[in-house]
Design goal:
Layout: H1 4-7, E1 12-18, H2 25-34, H3 56-68, H4 74-90, E2 93-100, H5 104-108, H6 112-130, E3 133-134, E4 136-141, H7 148-157, E5 163-169, H8 181-190, E6 196-201, H9 207-216, E7 221-224, H10 232-240, E8 244-247, H11 249-254, H12 267-273, E9 277-279, H13 284-287, H14 291-302, H15 306-319, H16 324-331
Parallel strand pairs: 1-2, 2-3, 2-4, 4-5, 5-6, 6-7, 7-8, 8-9
Helix pairs in contact: 4-6, 7-8
Length: 334
């Protein structure tokens, strides 16, 4: 068994992380203080070191929203992006592709451009200090179908070169993908450059949602997708179409509670079947995890060897939405 110190030398890449979800309780309090905001103490555990929630919907609607309220300026987005990427770099990450919610700028009371420019400054600074590469994807919210059109308009209002893909997140039981099909199509058609396509699917609803995402969208990657493992035909379809799964082991167990423990989680099964899988932290600040910890879990709980972990990083770079030149440069580092 390798220690986390030894695994830190393995290059890592992360394709599934929500930028607001990277905010640790300490970072939330620091930014809130800077902005003279008092966050509801109910979102924190008694000792203040973690967040406190009861179930996935409580997490995304109450805790996440309350915590994200502290983000009010362009500089806040720079701070949290720089903080996250430099922490990832310390654990050996060479590439991270965070996602953001376009409508978050409205909650923050700033323009979309200011929010994206803030993130981009954090990305540039992190790259200058550590060498880490990063790109952004923008995310629709499944539980907010009436926001699909306005979110699409926001995304189209400012086409920053770092934005490379589209996603949809939120509780699968809360909304139907069909309500977002037109919004995806509209942005893909009007963006002026090709964007990668992702969707959170088959996380807490079974294979039927995996099929639904494949039928409705020109999908490149599936967020989670773990329950695709229950349908052998779907597993074969993922392989045939070269769809990469963004698997988030800790999140699957803590947030959705689809699996009671790592033993019952299908990570190994999907990898062994030949599906392109990647390792991700999802909302590391909320779940108390990191990309390094997820690699460690794959090693300790699922028996991934160092060579297999490097193969997982290769999957992530190849499935990333970065440009070809960047991908080739990163692949040479693995
Ligand atoms: Zn997610």
């Amino acid at each position: 068994m390798r220690s986390s110190q030894q695994l830190s030398t393995i290059p890592k890449a992360e394709l599934h992380v929500h930028i607001e979800g990277t905010v640790t309780p300490d970072m939330a309090r620091l930014i809130a203080k800077r902005n003279n905001i008092s966050l509801n103490p109910d979102i924190f555990s008694k000792d203040g070191t973690s967040y406190k929630w009861s179930g996935f919907i409580d997490l995304v609607t109450r805790v996440y929203q309350e915590m994200a309220r502290c983000l009010q300026t362009s500089d806040d987005y720079e701070t949290l992006m720089y903080d996250y990427l430099t922490r990832c770099a310390k654990e050996g990450a060479i590439y991270v592709e965070p996602s953001g919610y376009p409508g978050q700028c409205i909650v923050s009371g700033i323009s979309y451009k200011d929010m994206i420019d803030g993130m981009a400054r954090g990305m540039d600074r992190a790259k200058a200090d550590t060498g880490i590469e990063s790109r952004l994807t923008m995310t629709f919210e499944r539980h907010r179908p009436d926001g699909a059109v306005s979110d699409a308009d926001i995304i189209l209002s400012y086409k920053h070169p770092y934005i490379v893909g589209l996603d949809i997140a939120g509780g699968e039981q809360e909304g139907d993908l069909s309500a977002f099909e037109d919004a995806y199509k509209h942005v893909l058609k009007e963006y002026g450059k090709p964007l990668g396509v992702r969707a959170h699917a088959a996380e807490n609803i079974g294979p039927i949602n995996g099929w639904d995402a494949l039928h409705r969208l020109p999908l490149n990657r599936m967020g989670h997708g773990v329950r695709c493992s229950e349908d052998p035909a779907l597993v074969q379809e993922l392989i045939a179409r070269n769809i990469t799964l963004e698997i988030c082991p800790t999140s699957n167990i803590l947030a959705v509670k689809e699996y009671p423990d790592f033993k019952s989680h299908p990570l190994r099964k999907l990898y062994d079947a030949g599906v392109s899988i990647t390792l991700n932290s999802d909302d590391p600040g909320l779940f108390g995890t990191t990309i390094g910890k997820e690699y460690q879990i794959a090693h300790e709980e699922f028996g991934f060897t160092e060579e297999e972990l490097r193969a997982v990083t290769r999957n992530a770079i190849m499935a990333s939405f970065a440009d070809l030149e960047t991908k080739e440069r990163l692949l040479r580092k693995i």
